[in-house]
Amino acid sequence: VNRKTRLARQNTRADSDFATRLLAWFDRAGRHDLPWQQDPTPYRVWVSEIMLQQTQVVTVAPYYLRFIGRFPDLATLARARLDEVLHLWSGLGYYARARNLHRAARDVLAQHGGELPRGPEALIALPGIGRSTAAAILALAHGERHAILDGNVKRVLARRTGEREYPGSAAALARLWTVADALTPAARVGAYTQAIMDLGATVCLRRRPRCGECPVAEDCRAHREVLTDEIPAKRPHRARPRRSVCMLLVRQGACVLLERRPAAGLWGGLWGLPEFADAAAARTWLRERFARVGTLRPRAPRAHAFTHFDLDITPLEVRVRGAEKRSSRALWYNPAAPRRLGLAAPVTALIRELGD
Ligand code: SF4
Description:
alpha+beta, 9-stranded mixed β-sheet, 14 helices, binds iron/sulfur cluster
C-alpha cells in the first residue's frame, strides 16, 4: 500500500471517528431541550434556522416561541400580513430574513401545496434559503444525509483542518464544504448536525475555545499548533464606511409620525421616522406638509452598527399642527396604544425615550 493510500485510509478513519466522538459528546453534554428540538417539523426547523443566522440561541428562543405561537404552521405564516411578521421580528435584526421567510412561505403555499419541498435544489430556490439552511432542514427534520456549514461549523472545521484563509473566500469555502461532507456520517445525521452546531456554539468558541473539553481535540490542527487565535482568519480589512442621517420625531398630540420604508434596503418594509440629510431639508419638508411647525429640537445623537457600515443618527423633535394628507405609507403612531408594526430597533428606542 503506497503512502498516499495509507494516508487516505487514516483520514477516513479519523473522519468516521470524528462523528463517533462528537455524537458521544452530544449525547452526554449537548443541548437537547431547545424549543425547536421539540417536534422538529420542517417548518419549525426552517424558522429556527433562519432566526439563528447571525443570532445566538439565548436571543432567539423567546422570539421563536412567540413566532411559532402566532404562526404555528406555514399556511398561517403565508396568510399573515408582512407587518405582523415584522412586528414579531422587531429587535432581532437582519429584517431581510423575515421578509424572505414570509415571501418563501407564500411561494411554498402557491407552488408546493404548503409543504416545504424535499429536495435541496427546490429548497435553495426559495427566498432566504442557502445551501447550509437547506441541508439543516433536510437533516434535522427528515434525517437525510446532507452536510451543513453555518458560521459555527465553519469555525470548527477551519480550526480542525488548519485553514488559514478567510473562511468567507470562495476557495476556503469550497475546501470547507468538502471537509463538511466527508465528516457527515450516514447514521444519526440529525443528531450529528445538532452536535456540530452545539460544539461551535458552546466549546469551539470564537474567543478562548474550550479545547480542554473538546471531544475532537486530538486531531485538531489549530489546537495542536496553537493557532486558535489566528483561525478562523479575519475578513480582509476594508475601511468601514460611516453614514449620517437626521431622523425626525414629528409629534402631534400623543402621536409620532411614522413612514413605511421601501421594501428593499435598510430596515426594508419596517416603519421608521422620516429621514433627511440635514435639519434644513427636514424644515423644508415640514413646511410643505403642516400648517404649523414648531422649533426643531435636537435629541441625544446615537450610532447604529450595520454589517457593512455605521450609521450616525441625529434625532430632531418637532411639534406640528394641521395633519398631513392621508397616505398609505404614513401613519400617526401612539406609543401609549401601539399598533402591531415592525419598527427598527433605534426607532423603538427613540420613541420610547419620548415618553420618559
Ligand atoms: S480542539 Fe479547540 S479549536 Fe479544535 S475544534 Fe476543539 S475546541 Fe475547537
